[in-house]
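Report of the visiting student (M.T.), summer placement. My assignment was to run the structure pipeline on a short list of targets and document each run. The first record concerns Aminotransferase class V-fold PLP-dependent enzyme.
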Amino acid sequence: AESCTPVLPVLGRDVTVPLVTGGEVTYAALDHAASAPALQRVWDDVAAYAPYYGSVHRGAGYLSQLSTDLFEQSRRAVAEFLGCREDDEVVFTRATTDSLNLLASALPAGTRVFVFETEHHASLLPWRGHDVTYLDAPRSPEQAVATLEEALHAAPAGPKLVCVTGASNVTGEIWPVRELTAAAHRHGARLVLDAAQLAPHRPVDVSELDVDWVAFSGHKLYAPFGAGVLAGRADWLRAAEPYLAGGGASRTVARREDGGVDVEWHTNAARHEAGSPNVIGAYAIASACGALRAAGFERLVAREEELLARLRAGLAEVPEVTVLSLFGDDADRVGVLSFVVEGWNSSHFAAALSAEHGIGVRDGLFCAHPLLRTLLGAESGAAGECGAPDAAAGAVSLNAIRVSFGVGTPDEHVSRFVSAVR
Ligand code: PMP
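After the run finished, the structure tokens were exported:
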């Protein structure tokens, strides 16, 4: 009979799952860092719109016009949510991975990229093919800034880009984005913020943080799968070849006398949005942005800190548990926490949480292999695949358990988790 005071209602509150011990229990979704349940409000908005949807930027019919308006309104709502500058572009993508690959495809020739080894693979890998400087894992926010500053100082002249996460998908620790951006700008570099984990938990204001671009995913921000955002400086995006070639990105296409074709591409966001756009995905993201703004991040953060304090206090009472951290106990963190349990293979532990307690967490290396190697000790042997722990690697257990929650999480999920771990 604990209080149950989530900030916003989400789908799936009443879903029950079977237990191996017999009977069933309501599902405790504690894997928000992978994908968060959709907000009820988002689902309602999408359902209300569904009968009216039509093709975007294509049809002449009333419903096509309505959908086009809704798509462009969604773009404006996202720009507002992110505090975009007047000239910024908001491009709808498939998710953060897609957004960062889009930006990677748009870098001016000769751009040198700086990225910490601690990043999610979506932030770590898209830059291959450019000159990339991988930075060692810092052990404090101050060291992160100093490490970046030193690397930029030593870099040759030319365009530079820093890619950094706002909050780690492994430790939940918040990175000093404003300070890193200031360091980047001092050295003539631009910065893209991977806000996949930050945006669902903290306000992300492009103007205030002064970042050049921001990327996030709808499915981690309480909207359904399939849509994400890249927002920020228009110049590199406008100068680049379209991310995908096709209808929607092209303004005019004409045969040349020599038999080839000439293409004039759009110069706005449409340049990188070829093909029929995901209007429902964009509308769902805009709806989620509106709901989070209306609830107020102050309230969201207060609630999250309360749950996180309970979670950490509960885990601290179990001596076999080691919580993974780069920046130490005092770090500012979102509701994402990874740990290992002495004497346990993390995959077995996570499987037991599911089978015996109806709790959904994630185990593995969280698509951040270099970071996990640093946190767990590189000598521990083979790593499981990203997203699918390798059974053969089970014996050496280079993996961890991650618990993560959000605006719809009731107290009971956290207390069930803590007593299950105990
Ligand atoms: N960056 C971070 C920090 C993430 O946590 C994730 C998702 N785990 C991504 C990028 C990639 O997001 P998506 O899978 O939605 O493209």
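Residues 16-38+296-421 form a domain with the Aspartate Aminotransferase, domain 1 fold (CATH 3.90.1150.10). The chain has two domains: 16-38+296-421, 43-294. I thank the supervising group for their guidance throughout the placement.
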